[in-house]
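hydroxyethylthiazole kinase, pasting as requested.
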Amino acid sequence: MQIGIRALDESLNLQKQKKPLIHCISNSISVRDLAQGILCYDGNPIIANFVEEAPDITFKCDCLLINLEDLSGAKVEAIEKSIRVARRKGIPVVLDIMGVDFSFLRKEMALRFINRYNISVVKGRVEEFKILTSSDDKLKNKDFKDLKLKENIEARVDLRSFSKRHNIILVVQCEDYYLTDGFSEFYVEGYQNEFSNILGTESILCGLICVGIASASNNEQRFRAVLVAIMTIAVSEKIAIQKNLEPKKNRRLKEYLLDEIININAEKLNRLAKVEYSFVR
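Structure tokens follow.
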């Protein structure tokens, strides 16, 4: 699957027309950045104030986002009820596995959601995916922080197999951005090292993915929307870094990033995104 400027423009226009409502079940630290990312990308975020109202809010939304960082017994129950509502309504569910490498419980919770329900997209760092897909519970995330996905065929085979088995789109943050549906593989050049110490950028990407996939109406459009969201964050990172280097500027890098997301268009993506594609049987 290749993507041209007309397809890029169509994907961006779909979300501008729909302005989807995204239900965010997230932690209190990153929820502000998540909401900003959604707003900058033509979506509308909503967060439940009480866990008891989460399923009702999901019913009124176009996409459900789940973050695993801040869990409790009541919250897990609300998440499962919300996922069941999303399944009945036929809206996509995006699972952010941030923090899955912190404990065995979080890993088991993520696998439970993936095995029991129809999760559309799973996003995380490469070390989190290695913990999630491994049967060895003694592994630590530090064992994989320097893993080069492009050079590691075995790791990519594991990811593609996981994607096929669960019929899930995987978005992996590694040295670049990696995307697979089990068959197609995309690498999008990113600038995550420059943003590694800036909190919230991973949540911003999740927001973009939710807006894109909520605006799509079929599987091809959904996969393309996730790719366009990744291209958007990568190009916005690139431009933000360039602007941050200009003299007499007094703004934070994250502010530049959000500005670029607001002003993204198909021409910028086509010109500035560096994308590698391969198809694997």
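Note for the archive: The chain has one domain: 5-279.
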